[in-house]
Amino acid sequence: MPKRNSNKKEALDKHKKLGGKLSVEPKVRLRTRKDLSVYYTPGVGHVSLEIAKDKKKAKVLTIKKNTVLVVSDGSAVLGLGDIGPLGALPVMEGKAMILKEFAGVDAFPIVLDLPAPADTRERVIQAVETIKRIAPAFGGINLEDFSAPRCFEIEERLKKELSIPVMHDDQHGTAIVVLAGLLNAARVIEKDIKKLRIVIQGAGAAGTAIAKLLHRYGVQSITVLDSKGVIYTGRKGLNSYKKELALLTKTKYRTFEEAMDGADAVIGVSGPDSIKTRHVKSMAEKRIVFALANPIPEIDYVTAKEAGAYIIATGRSDFPNQINNALVFPGIFKGALMYNKRSVTEIMKIRAAEALARMVKRPARTRIIPGVFDIGAVMAIAQAMK
């Protein structure tokens, strides 16, 4: 089995050598006085006045046409937790890099230094106001690594108050790629996805969005767990978002063990080692295990296989079936910009998942999802945004 974090030295050395993964380069070179007069003064003044008369022309005449803001407060970075804005910056650079390499979309990473986590309300207000004030330069907003439950309100408010697509990728990118993987996993085990018994271990940004998208697709049996256990109607101490989940899922189970006994699929979006061998062994035949915490999954790939998992997916690139939202967000934003969308709807998310699933012509146990380098995945998702 590959060593955990085995590429630490290489990653640190290469980032140090590069001094960051991004640079800003002009699309044309300034070589003559005429160039300067066209692209800067006085020519640029004509462009500015044109936009002042008709703001919609900014999408034709400026970087707004093809540029996305990738923004985080560093409160929920990967599986590393609240490591702050500077700790989040390398990840935001990476997201911007992926948008450019895979989709040809320009992106700029911004990290926000917000008040202490205890001041939840003020943190939400400042995040929303800051993003709104810098939004005019961008054609879309990719929210990243904001912790739950703040991430829900931040996204909801920005979607209402901005006229460009806003998507919290940890929620919806993950949900879309999970649905795509489950569609093909269900084909492999010859079951109707809508009739699968599914357990979601983790009720943060990703777990909440996965549950909602699966429910929207028609999955009838969904049980969601947080760190305190099964989320169900009547459980004390639930916040408004978890109460909504309880009403949505209407689960009859009260413990993880009960939920896992006979379950068809478990989706781990919580943290390392939270799914045990006994849980997998108690599942139905041809059991599906998505252990997506990264870099250390809820259950190790080999351990899950030894416990009888029939289809296994992880968030890692060194095992089969990598469930990674890098498969989704480049195409989502490319399509949103191409088709001048004001939002990313639930129908678009479902169409994106179905398009991604169709990329795999003959699904198999170790091939339920395309790879991030598979040609055509970005455009397939982008076209689903029509």
Would you mind describing this structure in some detail?
- With about 375 residues, the chain is α/β, with parallel strands linked by helices.
- The chain folds into 2 domains: about 20-170, Rossmann fold, CATH 3.40.50.10380; about 170-385, Rossmann fold, CATH 3.40.50.720.
- The chain has 16 helices and 10 strands.
- A hairpin with a 2-residue loop joins strand 6 (about 220-225) and strand 7 (about 230).
- Helix 8 packs across helix 15.
- The radius of gyration is 22 Å and the shape is globular.
- The two termini are about 40 Å apart.
Number of domains: 2
End-to-end C-alpha gap: 42 Å
- The appropriate CATH architecture of the largest domain is 3-Layer(aba) Sandwich
What is the number of helical segments per DSSP (H or I, 4+ residues)? 16
Strand proportion: 5-15%
Q: What are the segments in which pLDDT stays under 50 over at least 5 consecutive residues?
A: none
The CATH class assignment of the largest domain is Alpha Beta
Summarize the amount of helix as a percent range: 40-55%
Task: Please trace the helix and strand order, writing H or E for each element.
Answer: HHHHEHEHEHEHEHEEHHEHEHEHHH
The biggest sheet amounts to: 6 strands, mixed
> Structural class from helices and strands?
alpha/beta
Order of strands across the main sheet: 7-6-5-8-9-10
Instruction: Using the CA coordinates, give the radius of gyration.
Output: 22 Å
Fold-level CATH name of the largest domain: Rossmann fold
SS elements, strand count: 10
Any idea what the CATH superfamily of the largest domain is called? NAD(P)-binding Rossmann-like Domain
Principal-axis shape: globular
